[in-house]
Amino acid sequence: MIGDSHPAVWRFDSNGQLEQGWPKTGRMGAGGGVIEQGIIFGIAPHPDGGVWLGGRLRTEANGSDATLWWLRDDGTLHPQSPRSWDRPGVAGGYQAGFGLAAGPDGVWMAGWLRGEAGLDDAGVWRLSNANGGIAGFPLARVDDSPREDSPSEIARDVAVDDEGHAWVTGGVQGHVTDMAVWRFAPDGELSGGPYIFNNGAGGDWNDGGWGIKVDPAGAVWVVGTSSGDVGAGLDMAVWKLE
């Protein structure tokens, strides 16, 4: 049942066999107004062992909070997990973490926050490796799009380069959706973008970034979808930023 789903984590050995005692599932520390439903979307390694998990937990107001868990190597939650964020003043708002990336000092999470009139803002969260919040986060990217018809933004994935900058991809949504890339300095300041891309499949319709990585040479790769003319369907798309 959708209303009774719980976060779940499986762990496999190097031969692809499920390790004894896994999966770990349950309410994973649910409390403080959070009820049953929870979903994990992203995973990244923790330097002290175990993994960071990102996703959402449903709230009593029938919304959801963006949530980070630290699942330790023995399969137990860190005592301060989960860490959840809502958006003050937005009753029943839908916040969610989606993509995760481990940086030199902590973890970054990309997702979205529900704003006024049901519109979304791209959201970026960051926690230190000690599971502590970092000042200035979460970020809500509003009024950053150069497109006048883009009232909504969404972030789906994040990657961290060798200098500690976070590259975030997703989309800016208006009459159509364009693929977008933002770059953030380690302190959370926007240091590049949004870089807007459309016409990946030869038309002027919907494009979106779903995954992002930085290669050893520093080039940024984005995978996602692109559509041509109206009704033409979706194509796989790959973008490279140098």
Textual characterization of the structure:
There is one protein chain. The chain is mainly beta. It has a single domain, classed as Tachylectin-2, Chain A. It is built from no helices and 17 strands. The chain has a 4-stranded antiparallel β-sheet with strand order 3-4-5-6, with no helix packed on it. A 4-stranded antiparallel β-sheet has the order 7-8-9-10, with no helix packed on it. A hairpin with a 3-residue loop joins strand 7 and strand 8 (106-114). The N and C termini lie far apart (45 Å). Mean pLDDT is 81; it is low at 29-35.
Please identify the structural class as seen in this structure. mainly beta
Q: State the low-pLDDT regions, or none.
A: 29-35
Distance between the amino and carboxyl termini: 45 Å
Radius of gyration: 18 Å
Question: What is the H-and-E element order?
Answer: EEEEEEEEEEEEEEEEE
Number of domains: 1
Q: How do the strands line up in the largest sheet?
A: 3-4-5-6
Q: Count every beta strand, where a strand is a DSSP E run of 2 or more residues.
A: 17
**Contiguous helical run count:** 0
Please state the average pLDDT score.
81
What descriptors fit this protein?
single chain; 242 residues; mainly beta; Tachylectin-2, Chain A; 4-stranded antiparallel sheet
Could you provide a short overview of the structure?
This protein has one domain: Tachylectin-2, Chain A. The protein is 0% helix and 50% strand. The protein is mainly β.
